[in-house]
Amino acid sequence: MKCGFDRLDITPILPVRLSGFGKVRWANEIHDPIMTRLFLFKGEEENLLIQLDLVAVDDLLYTMIEKKTGIKKDRIVLMATHTHSGPVGTLDTTKGALNGLDSIFGEVNTNYCECIADQVSDSVNHLRECLQPFTYRILKGKVEGLGTDRHDLSLPYDEDMLLIEFKLADGKRALLTRMSCHPTVMNQENCCVTADFPGAIEPLFPEYQQVAYVNGSCGNMSTRFTRKGNGFEEVERFGKLVAKQMKELLNKPIPFKEDFSLCIKRKEIELPPRKFDTIEEATRKLEETKAKYEEGKKMNLDEQALRVLKSVYEGAQNNMFAAMRASSLSKLMLSISWIKLPEINLITVPCELFSTLSDLIKEELNSEFIGYTNGYFLYLPDEESFRKQVYESFSSPFAAGSGELLMNEIKKWVKG
Question: According to DSSP H, which parts of 129-257 are helical?
């Protein structure tokens, strides 16, 4: 098998509306570029892994890249980082689980998606001419101080760090790193284009051609309890914190190997949509959560406790949106990828999966999960979070218990 990798600047022309928060924001400044990073593998067939500094992508970009590159769709994996300070335009908010959420994700921008697909296609054609033999090594560790459960510090969360290092015959190197944390250091007040903390990692590895950060099961995880602010100084601090632990792992005497293999399998799994509230029920919950948030402000609760109450209130707002568009959602069909590597299985899901769900099976399957991949269906919480009625369960299109159902289906599939 041979390999090639490349990084592309996909920062749109300013001004551009930013995606991810309910507040409409227009950026007139670029703090750091929005990038996409490619890994092309050629054995008996071509396999293309693409990481993008975007909030999410859906089938439109997927189909464009398949058509322009000629690579089969089931051999392409698109992995978004989920930055909330990248451009809108890569999600269709007129149908499915995202119907009516243009206030958060904007309207689809076909021209922007076409531009990304063209760049990817040009890069793939270039890489085809210069693929090389390569060696690799897979390193597993932990990352500390980045993210925790975003509601309760006593709850478990995913600290796993996975590093895959590739070295071409000519000496050029690239990293693919997977860990779990919402890249939302920059909040809804930010009006600069930025990849958030993942974008601050790569510059700290100048000896590598690229460092591609992909996100794990972080639906329940963020920097809410670990960050000291919401500015770029904090973005840089997290970048240095993560890079330091990555370098410690890379310094371990684990040798490079030559026997790399990669096999991508795809499976469509249908999950049930939740029974949405009536407008009256949604209104009652909205009023209740708003009252609790306002009471918290009167009680002068600390910033973190107040942010939890505010997030539940924001979830109730999303629940109201869901109640208003409930009739448009009849089924949820998720495209799951199983990437078989020599020492580990990577399972990709098109949603914001709770780490408490993937933790149920990942050790048994010798796997790590990657979210925001090959589509986007919002949050997939565990059943306990539906019972507690937290922000993510309010915002989810799935029925309670769907996450556990998905884990069971994936387990049966992988174990054969």
Answer: 232-250
pTM of the model: 0.93
- Residue 265 is assigned to a structural domain of this protein: no
Angstrom distance (rounded) from CA 17 to CA 63? 24
Q: Which range of residues forms the domain containing residue 124?
A: 2-250
Q: Let me know whether 206 and 81 are in one domain.
A: yes
Residue 402 maps to a domain: no
**Is 339 inside a domain boundary?**
no
pLDDT at 330: 78
DSSP code of residue 27: E
Q: What angle do CA 277, 279, 281 make, to 5 degrees?
A: 55
pLDDT score of 325: 67
Q: How many CA atoms lie within 13 A of 195 on its CB side?
A: 29
- Please name the amino acid found at residue 229: G
How far apart (Å, rounded) are the C-alpha atoms in residues 17 and 25? 6
Domain identity same for 281 and 234: no
pLDDT of residue 70: 98
User: Is there a single domain that holds both residue 212 and residue 74?
Assistant: yes
Neighbours of 217 (CB within 10 A): 27
pLDDT value at residue 74: 94
C-alpha–C-alpha distance, residues 209 and 205, integer Å: 9
The answer on 211 and 129 residing in a single domain is yes
Q: How many CB atoms lie within 10 A of CB 159?
A: 19
Please write the tens of the pLDDT for every residue from 383-409.
Answer: 999 998 888 998 899 999 999 999 999
221 and 322 within one domain: no
Determine how many CB atoms are found less than 10 A away from the CB of residue 41: 22
Is position 235 within any domain?
yes
Residue in the structure block whose two tokens are 């999950």: 271
Q: What is the pLDDT of residue 326?
A: 60
Tokens of 353: 């999966």
DSSP 8-state code for residue 263: E
* Tally of structural domains, the chain: 2
Res 327: pLDDT: 56
In 3D space, the residue among 308, 265, 260, 147 whose CA is nearest the CA of residue 213 turns out to be: 147
Low-confidence ranges of the chain (pLDDT < 70): 325-328
Query: CA-CA distance, 66 to 408, in Å (whole number)?
Result: 30
d(CA 241, CA 226): 12
Let me know if 291 is exposed, middle or buried by CB neighbors in 10 A (0-12, 13-18, 19+): exposed
> Per the structure block, which two tokens stand in for 177?
């790193």
